[in-house]
Design brief:
Length: 359
């Protein structure tokens, strides 16, 4: 059955439904991912909440979906657009086809779309509202103003690990499983708390360090949690990842801005200006920290994106705080930034037991 992708620009692309056609139009911000593999991890990354995702690689689904590589318990995208969806899976770990997995969660999959043309539109005009529809009649698209983080953050605290070397409180703005795994494999005890947990509650947990997780949406929609984050930055060694990086910057007075079409892929070159190392990274974000706004915040730029020179990470001159815009835990993507977790825990050990205001 024919299906149609509508862009806010007025462009309409015709394709074929792989899953059952949706009963009503599916609206969302349209974005694209440039990786050749890793679609399972991408679909279950909470940072893609309510987005319509275009895969630039022309063949998606050939190795199926397994039971091990989920980044959360369910997919979060609003819909998926591909050139070709392969239903003939070929991998020893595969349990489901891409079609069956998305059908289970009622997420529409539209194929035989000229994804190259769609991506060119996004690159030229920016990420924009879009709609998946059974009709080719022109339509107006309006996106929900719902706050996305509260949809993906766990509503109650969770505990992982037993008597670890360090106790890390992970503030859950939509965290990926791989972040938790990265801490547990380094013998950490981890408490995952809801994104709006207040400072006194976190303090009562007696953490050695704080990790601000990734998550979806505009960081400025979370202004109400910035006072808590500022207190945490002033009292504990802290690592911010992706959205957590942006929130840490905002909490200490910096500003953020939206990129034209964002960074989403597993092949973005990053330069670590501290040790002059260049490595590839996994990315998923629309917003970046504005470098001009860093003056007076105490933050210094450590990492830069070599494609567009945008900020990819910060360190603080007075506080034991470091942040990264990319995903050091990868999944999907290269794991060359994994050393960030080791640096963070070294800082945690260095400041262990010093629950005091640093600045």
């Amino acid at each position: 059955m024919d299906g149609f992708l509508h862009l806010e620009s007025g462009d309409i692309f015709k394709g074929k439904w792989v899953t059952t056609s949706p009963a009503k139009d599916i609206d969302g911000e349209i974005v694209f991912f440039t990786g050749m593999t890793g679609y399972q991890e991408v679909l279950t990354d909470p940072s893609y909440k309510d987005q319509i995702l275009v895969f630039t690689y022309p063949l998606i689904g050939n190795y199926g979906i397994n039971e091990e590589d989920f980044e959360s318990s369910k997919p979060h995208v609003a819909g998926v657009v591909v050139f070709e969806a392969n239903d003939n899976i070929s991998h020893y770990r595969a349990k489901y086809s891409l079609k069956d997995y998305l059908q289970k969660w009622n997420i529409p999959l539209l194929a035989h779309i000229d994804t190259r043309a769609v991506v060119k539109k996004i690159r030229n005009q920016g990420s924009m509202p879009a709609s998946l529809s059974t009709s080719n009649s022109p339509k107006e698209i309006s996106l929900s103003k719902d706050q996305k983080v509260e949809k993906v953050s766990e509503p109650t605290s969770q505990w992982f690990g037993e008597k670890g070397d360090s106790h890390v409180v992970l503030m859950d703005f939509g965290n990926k499983k791989s972040i938790l795994t990265s801490l547990l494999k380094r013998n950490c005890q981890v408490t995952v708390v809801p994104y709006d947990t207040n400072f006194k509650e976190i303090q009562s947990l007696k953490p050695d360090g704080i990790l601000l997780s990734n998550g979806p949406g505009d960081p400025k929609e979370l202004k109400h949690v910035l006072p808590t984050i500022k207190k945490l930055l002033l009292h504990y060694p802290t690592l911010g990842i992706c959205l957590g990086h942006q929130l840490a910057a905002l909490a200490l007075g910096a500003d953020t801005k939206k990129l034209l079409f964002g960074h989403r892929g597993a092949n973005h070159p990053i330069k670590d200006q501290l040790n002059q190392r260049v490595f590839m990274s996994s990315q998923n974000h629309s917003y970046v920290v504005d470098e001009e706004s860093l003056k007076g915040t105490g933050f210094k730029v450590r990492y830069k994106n070599l494609h567009d020179q945008s900020i990819e990470g910060l360190t603080h001159t007075n506080l034991p705080v470091q942040t990264v815009q990319f995903h050091p835990e990868a999944n999907p993507g290269p794991g060359e930034g994994d050393y960030i977790f080791d640096e963070f825990l070294n800082k945690v050990n260095q400041y262990s037991g010093r629950v005091t205001q640093y600045a």
